[in-house]
Design goal:
Blueprint lengths: L1 E5 L10 E7 L6 E2 L4 E6 L4 E5 L4 E6 L6 E3 L3 E6 L1
Antiparallel strand pairs: 1-8, 2-4, 2-7, 3-6, 4-5, 6-8
Amino acid sequence: MTYEVKLPSLGEDSVEEATVSYWLVEEGDQVKEGDDLVEMTTDKAAFSVPSPESGTVLEKLVEEGDDVRVGDVLCTLET
């Protein structure tokens, strides 16, 4: 089954966008639920996006330096 990993809500109503700082995984990597996938930054904070499921990273859909909005798909996992 393919699972889409999306940028989660950032907790503040005014913050709806973040920048991809760097990927912590490569396509084909095995990850466990809770493993950090990607580092993100906003003008107020830096944070990691954890894997919501265990599986294999199929495709990274955004690149380092890209700006993404809450709900945008960051990568896909084969679970």
